[in-house]
Structures are given as C-alpha cells and as structure tokens.
C-alpha cells in the first residue's frame, strides 16, 4: 500500500537528528540551542510514528507516544525558557559560553 | 649470667629516660645516668665473678628465617666478653661521675648524659654480641654515639668537622667490615662466631678467602681503632668534651676495633698473611703515632696520639698471636688512659687552655691531679711495677716470639718515644715556672678527683693479674678451654723485660734533661724540617685532602652535574608533563555544559564507530 | 516505481532538510526561527504520509505554533543582536562535525540493514478516534500524569521567571 520504505523515513529522522545535535553542541545562542533540542525531539517523534506504522506489529501506541513526547517537549521548552530568562537577568547575556557557573 | 642481657639495657634506659625527661631534671640528670651505669657495673662484676667459676654462657633466639637460613639474636658471656663488660661499665660509670663536675653549667647537660648512655649501651651491646650481624649493628651504633658526642659542641666549626670526620673515616673501615662479613656469610652460611670458627677450623673455607675476609674485617677495626692509615679522625675527635675523649679512648670506640680482632681471633690465626698484616699495621701505627706525639703542643692531642700508638701496640700483639697480651694491654690501657684523660680534663678545667706551652708549675697548685697524672704517665711509660709495664712486656715478648725482629725493634723504639713524650707532657705541664696568667688555678671538685683516684689505683694494680712473677691468672683464664687463642703466657727471654725497663727509663731521663732540668736544648730535633713534618703529623691530612678528597670531590662534582642536568632534568620533565596535563585538564573544566556534552558526545561517537568497525567485539 | 507518495515524501523531506541546514547556517536568529517553521511543518507532512493525521495536526499546533512562538518571545525578550560566534571554537565545531558524521554513518549502517516486513495496518482509518480510544483507556494514567507535568511546568516557569523579579524589585 505504500511505495515509501521505512528506511527512508528513518534516514530523514537521522538527518534531522544530526542537524539538531550539531546545532545543540555548537550554537552560541541559548535559544537556538533549545530549538535544536526541539528538532532532535521531532526526529525522535518521526521514528516513533514510523515504527508505529512499519514496525513488527503496527500499532497506535507509537503515535500516542509521539503525543506524549510532544507534551513533554512543550513543558521542557517552557521551563527552559524560564531558566533562560532567569539567567539573562543575572548575566545580561544569552551566550552559552558565558554560562560557566559550574566552573566556580 | 643468664640475665647478662640486662646490662646494656641500663644505659639504654638512661638514654631514653633522659631524652624524654632530661629537661625537667637539669643537672640532677647526672644522678640518673650514674645510678643506671652503676647498676650495669655491679651486674657486670657479678657476671665476671660468676664467669670465673662457670663455663661460657650463650643464649640465642631465632630472629629471622629467610629460606632455610636462620638469623639469630642473643648474647654470649665468654671470658673476653665478661672482661670487656666490666671495663666498659667501669670506665663509663667513672666518666659519668666525672662529667657531673666537668660539665657543670653546661646548657645541654641532660643531652650529654643521654648521649653517654647511648654510647655505653652500644658498646655493652657490642661486647655481648654472639654473632657478626649483631656486632655490626652495635658497631654502627657506637659510631653514631661517637658522632653525637664528638660533635657535642656543634656550634664550634671544628667540632662539627671533627664529628663528621670521625664518622666518615670510621665508615670507610665499616665498609670493609661489612664486605668481610657478607663474604663470611656467603662462605659459611652463618653470622655466628662459633659457626664461623668451626667452619674455619674444619677447613671448609678456602685459605685465600679466609685471608681476604680477615683483612677486610681488620679494615673495619683499623677504622674504629684509629690505626694507620685511618687514624686521622682520632686526634681531631679531641674537639669533643674531655670526658668523652676518655670514654672513646679508653673503653668504647677505639676498644671496639681491638675487641673485634680479639673476638674473631680464631679466624685471624687461620691466616698467616692476615696476622702479619695486623702486626705490621700495628707496629707502623705504634711508632708512627708515637713520633707525632713527640712534638704536639695540645695536651689532648698528645694523649690522642699516644692512644693511637698504644692501639698499634695491641694490634701488634694480636698480630703476633699474642691474644692475651693484646687483651691485657687493652684492659690496662683502658684504665691508665682514662685516668690520663680525666686528669688532663682536670688540668684544662683548672687553666682553661689546652696548649701545654702556656702551662707550667701546676704541681703545687693541683695537689691531687698532679700525682694522679704522674701515676698515669708512669703506667703508660712502662715503668716497672705499674700496670703498663706488665702488659707492654707481654706485647714485646709476643712480638719477639712472633718472629718479627723488625717489628720488635719498632715496638721498642715506640716504647722509648712513649716514655719520652709522656714525660715531656708531664714536665711541661706540672714543673717549671708557673705562668702569671695562671693565678686563680684551683683544684677540681672531689666529684672529679674521686673517679681519677679509682682509676689511678687500677692503673697501678691491674697489671698484677697477669705477671711473670706472681702468676698469669688473667692469661690462663682468658684462653681457658679454647686452644685457638694460644697460650695464656708466653715465656720470653728475661732480657726483653730489662730492655723494656731500660728503654722507658732512658726516655724519661732524656725527657727530664730537656724539659725538666733544661740542660739540653729543646730544639734537640735540630733539623727544623723533621720537626715540621712531625708537627704536621707527616702531612697525612694534607696528603688525604690533596689526593683522596680531591678525587672524591671531582667525582662528586661529576655526579652532581649528572644529578643537576640528567636526573633533575628528568624529574622536571616529568613534573612539566604532569603540569601540562593538569593544565589541559583544567582547561577542559570550563564550566560550560555545552562543551561537556560535546566532549561526551564525541566520545560516544568514537566508541560507536569503533564498535561498528570491529563488528561489536573489541 | 515513482509513486506519487514517494514524490511527496521526497519533496517534504527536502524542505525539512533544507530548513534544518538553514537553521545551522543563517546568521540572523529570527531567520533561523523562520527556517525552523518550515522544518516543523514538513515534519507534519511526514506524519500525514505515515498515516498519523492527528499527530500531524498536533505537530503543527504545538511546534509550528506554540513552541516557535515561545522561542520567538525568548529571542525578542533577550538581546538577540549578538549573533557572532565565539572565536577559537572552530576546532570544536570541526570535532563535533566529525563526531556527528561518524554517528550518522554508524546509524545509517544500521538503518540500511534494516529489513522490516510490510504489515497490514489500519492506522489510517479513523486515526483520531483510535488515538482517543487508546489515550482514554490504555494510557489514561500517563495521560493524567502528563496533565500534572504540564501544571508543574507552568508553575515552575512562573516561579523561575517571577522570583528574580521580586529580588530585583527589592534591590531597586
């Protein structure tokens, strides 16, 4: 019923995940880092939904999982931004390399 | 006798006690030392008397088991050990008593007594040792004790240098002893004296090896007993307090060397070469040191050279197979040399100088010290009826019977020299005009004179335990049950005794002519060069510093360069490497979560790649 | 076998990847966010292709809508002019790039060897109803927990943002 193989979806998810990973590890702006993490979560969601359809036992559970992941991602984004604001008030900066409080 | 091991523990107790609580006792710490050494003395005497009637007692316990070799530790009371115990504890006790007066007012008074205790403990332990290893321990401990005591006035540069010199010079000898000891152990498989003697007697050890080990051990004795050519530390050791000199010269340090040779006598007798070496070294030392003693002007240095000379005598006796003669002289010498040193200390105490050129006419002022000093002088000069006469006579006979006419001749000349310089000392100190600056000369307190009187009595009578006239009690007793030690008394031609008497009297007379009556010019030595050579002790020290010290220094400079540039370079390299590593590590700790996660991720990626490439199995 | 479905997938995937690459390479933060919206929307398309219509709708609502807007707020409320990259971090970028490349290669190796049998499924029939039934029957406890989580996140965010306000107010 489908002409698109599962590996194509998985590869796309992999590419997006890698982009998100690279961004999360190299970008200086903390907002962009958060966004990159959202991208990685999205890539994971694609995987979940793909396996929900093409897995050994096609099941709706994968999609439900993706929904849960989204809600958690939304909560994470909200809290992450709140922390970012708190940091910004203290540091007057959103540059991630100036957040080195763990060093001292 | 079963409890003889307790004897050395008394001085050790004194040492520890004074080390811990000495400050609180101040000068009364002398009583602690005196009491404990007196206990040693009493016990030693008991052991000695018990030894007269009972055989040698020996007790040992296993100390270490290495493979199938057992090292033992224990103690042994044979004739020599019992005799030495009494000599050491007696002299030590008298020195303890004497020091109470002599060291009065000294700030580190308790420390001095603590050191004395350590020194006495070491020597008593040494003479009780039944095996070479134990002997070696105490041998080194004696070295430590002498180092501490010679350097007691450590704020004086000379004392510091002398202490170091004594330590290093004896150390050279100790290396010989150590090597000899290890060789013996290798050959015999035991450090036990008895086992060694048995192996030697049974011919289990090659003749060459016996000679080698005997000479190596003798080198140890040379260092400790101040024999030529390692004698130079002994006169320098005069920088220590005078009671220490008495202790070192009479009972402990230098006696250790002679004791070692005597204790290992059966080993030495197994090798003619070794015996001859000992005899020759002894004779050379005797005449050599005596000739230096002729011109020294420091009262203690004269006595020091006389000690070196007398030790040479003992070695000569031992080397000529005269075991009894050597030990006998060791005993008599201990008494009269201790007496002489204590008397000299009393003189120094009175006039506050050690230069005999500045003394004179002290006979009337030092009513007690003077006669006592005279007794000591007569004894060491070998005047008949004094103890030195009998023991020296024994040595001369031994040398004659030993078949070394040249050595005998040297010994006779040395005896002449001894008589001469000892009376030179006596005349210059006690007779003649008294110097003006010696106004407030006073006799020493009775605390100091009493020990001297005891020693003076012994210096007179101790000779009578072994005489050709009244029986040779000591000699017979010493060799009892041990054929390896030779005969108790060797009958010699009667003319030897006459020669000895004549020679010593001639020396005294000549000395009186020059220094007493002053009818002969003091520049009797005529040739100034000879005088200079003697005064500078044959330039031995200079010779050493020109050759051995220079070479050693050069070598050590070379080693220092290696140390500075190679060793230190490596060390610095290592530290630099570690520091760089640390700095890099610290740099990683930026506190930035992003960096941390980046590093963690890269690590994960590398692991994954390796995992994939190797198919999952590393 | 270029079915229409495959063409659609290729187009959507291309848009998603281009959006991601632009996210990495643009210098202006606002432009990055716009590029990201493209990616999120195309992911929703992917979900449609995977017969998950409800998830696609939620994706657009939450990601393209809510999260992007929140992030935009975050950017606007903070100083966003500073876009320059820190000097000296290029070696790290390179190292991370290599790491990501290796990671991707390994994973792709795994994906390439994956051989899943095609199963008949009925996900596309009344998709939303299926999800609803699953959520309210089988996953009701996680569902309720999620609501608690969201509440906690809400309160937490407010507290985090508010606490410092009061402190600063005290200082001033």
Annotated CATH topology of chain A: Helix Hairpins
Radius of gyration of chain B: 29 Å
Main sheet overview of chain B: 2 strands, antiparallel
Looking at how many chains there are and whether they match, the oligomeric state comes to: heterotrimer
Shape of chain A: elongated
Our estimate of the beta-strand percent of chain A is under 5%
Order of helices and strands of chain B: HHEEHHHHHHHHHHHHHHHHHHHHHHH
Number of domains of chain A: 1
Taking pLDDT < 50 over at least 5 consecutive residues as the criterion, the unreliable ranges of chain A are none
What is the average per-residue confidence, as pLDDT of chain B, rounded to a whole number?
Answer: 77
Q: What CATH architecture of chain A would you give?
A: Orthogonal Bundle
Regions with little confidence, pLDDT below 50 for 5+ residues of chain B: none
What's the total count of β strands of chain A?
A: 0
Task: Report the C-alpha radius of gyration of chain A, rounded.
Answer: 17 Å
Protein chains sharing the most extensive interface: A-C, 74 and 90 residues
| Major sheet: arrangement of strands of chain B | 1-2
- Beginning-to-end CA distance, first to last residue of chain B: 74 Å
Order of helices and strands of chain A: HHH
Q: What's the total helix number of chain A? A: 3
């Amino acid at each position: 019923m489908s002409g698109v193989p599962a590996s194509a979806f998985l590869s796309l998810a992999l590419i997006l995940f890698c982009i998100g990973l690279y961004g999360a590890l190299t970008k200086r702006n903390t907002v962009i880092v958060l966004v990159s993490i959202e991208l990685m979560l999205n890539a994971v969601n694609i995987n979940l939904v793909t396996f929900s359809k093409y897995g050994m036992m096609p099941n709706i559970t994968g999609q439900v999982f993706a929904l849960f992941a989204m809600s958690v991602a939304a909560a994470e984004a909200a809290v992450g931004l709140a922390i970012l604001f708190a940091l910004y008030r203290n540091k007057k900066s959103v540059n991630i390399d100036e957040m080195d409080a763990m060093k001292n | 006798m079963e409890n003889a091991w307790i004897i050395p523990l008394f001085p050790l107790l004194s040492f520890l006690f004074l080390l811990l609580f000495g400050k609180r006792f101040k000068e009364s710490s002398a009583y602690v030392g005196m009491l404990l050494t007196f206990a040693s003395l009493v016990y030693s005497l008991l052991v000695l008397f018990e030894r007269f009637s009972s055989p040698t007692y020996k007790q040992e316990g296993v100390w270490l088991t290495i493979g199938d070799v057992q090292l033992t530790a224990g103690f042994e009371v044979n004739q020599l050990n019992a005799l030495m115990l009494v000599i050491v504890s007696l002299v030590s006790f008298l020195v303890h008593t004497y020091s109470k007066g002599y060291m009065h007012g000294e700030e580190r008074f308790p420390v001095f007594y603590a050191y004395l205790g350590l020194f006495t403990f070491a020597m008593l332990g040494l003479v009780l040792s039944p095996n070479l290893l134990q002997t070696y321990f105490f041998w080194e401990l004696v070295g430590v004790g002498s180092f501490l005591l010679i350097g007691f006035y450590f704020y004086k540069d000379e004392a510091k240098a002398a202490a170091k010199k004594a330590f290093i010079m004896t150390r050279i000898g100790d290396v010989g002893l150590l090597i000899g000891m290890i060789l013996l152990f290798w050959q015999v498989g035991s450090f036990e004296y008895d086992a060694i003697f048995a192996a030697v007697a049974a011919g289990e050890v090659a003749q060459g090896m016996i000679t080698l080990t005997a000479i190596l051990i003798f080198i140890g004795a040379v260092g400790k007993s101040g024999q030529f050519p390692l004698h130079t530390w002994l006169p320098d050791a005069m920088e220590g307090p005078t009671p220490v000199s008495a202790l070192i010269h009479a009972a402990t340090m230098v006696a250790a060397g002679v004791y070692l040779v005597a204790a290992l006598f059966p080993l030495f007798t197994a090798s003619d070469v070794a015996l001859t070496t000992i005899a020759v070294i002894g004779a050379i030392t005797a005449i050599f040191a005596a000739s230096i003693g002729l011109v020294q002007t420091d009262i203690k240095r004269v006595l020091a050279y006389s000690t070196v000379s007398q030790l040479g005598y003992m070695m000569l006796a031992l080397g000529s197979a005269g075991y009894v003669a050597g030990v006998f002289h060791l005993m008599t010498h201990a008494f009269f040399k201790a007496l002489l040193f204590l008397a000299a200390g009393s003189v120094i105490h009175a006039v506050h100088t050690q230069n005999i050129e500045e003394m004179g006419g002290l006979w009337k002022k030092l009513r007690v010290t003077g006669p006592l000093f005279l007794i000591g002088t007569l004894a060491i000069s070998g005047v008949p009826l004094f103890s030195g006469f009998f023991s020296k006579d024994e040595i001369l006979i031994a040398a004659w019977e030993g078949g070394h006419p040249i050595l005998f001749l040297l010994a006779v000349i040395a005896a002449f020299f001894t008589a001469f310089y000892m009376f030179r000392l006596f005349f210059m100190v006690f007779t003649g005009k008294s110097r003006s600056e010696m106004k407030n000369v006073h006799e020493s307190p009775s605390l100091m004179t009493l020990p001297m009187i005891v020693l003076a009595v012994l210096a007179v009578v101790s000779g009578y335990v072994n005489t050709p006239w009244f029986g040779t009690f000591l000699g017979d007793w010493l060799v009892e049950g041990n054929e390896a030690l030779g005969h108790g008394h060797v009958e010699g031609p009667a003319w030897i005794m006459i020669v000895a008497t004549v020679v010593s009297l001639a020396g005294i007379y000549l000395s009186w002519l020059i220094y007493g009556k002053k009818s002969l010019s003091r520049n009797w030595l005529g040739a100034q060069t000879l005088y200079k050579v003697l005064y500078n002790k044959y330039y031995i020290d200079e010779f050493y510093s020109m050759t051995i010290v220079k070479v050693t220094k050069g070598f050590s400079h070379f080693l220092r360069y290696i140390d500075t540039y190679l060793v230190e370079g490596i060390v610095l390299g290592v530290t630099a490497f570690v520091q760089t590593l640390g700095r890099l590590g610290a740099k990683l700790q930026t506190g930035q979560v992003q960096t941390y996660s980046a590093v963690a991720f890269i690590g994960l990626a590398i692991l994954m790649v390796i995992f994939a490439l190797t198919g999952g199995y590393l | 076998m270029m079915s229409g479905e495959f063409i659609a997938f290729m187009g959507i995937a291309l848009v998603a990847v281009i959006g991601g690459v632009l996210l990495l390479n643009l210098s202006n933060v606002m432009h990055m966010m716009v590029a990201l919206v493209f990616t999120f929307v195309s992911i929703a398309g992917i979900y449609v292709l995977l017969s998950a219509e409800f998830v696609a709708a939620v994706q657009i609502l939450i990601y393209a809508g809510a999260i992007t807007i929140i992030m935009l707020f975050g950017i606007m409320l903070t100083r966003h002019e500073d876009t320059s990259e820190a000097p000296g971090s290029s070696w790290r970028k390179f190292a991370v790039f290599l790491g990501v490349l290796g990671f991707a290669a390994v994973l792709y190796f795994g994906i390439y060897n994956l051989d899943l049998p095609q199963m008949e499924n009925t996900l596309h029939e009344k998709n939303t109803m299926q999800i609803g039934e699953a959520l309210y029957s089988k996953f009701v406890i996680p569902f309720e927990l999620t609501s608690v989580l969201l509440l906690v996140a809400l309160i937490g965010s407010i507290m985090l943002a508010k606490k410092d306000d009061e402190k600063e107010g005290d200082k001033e």
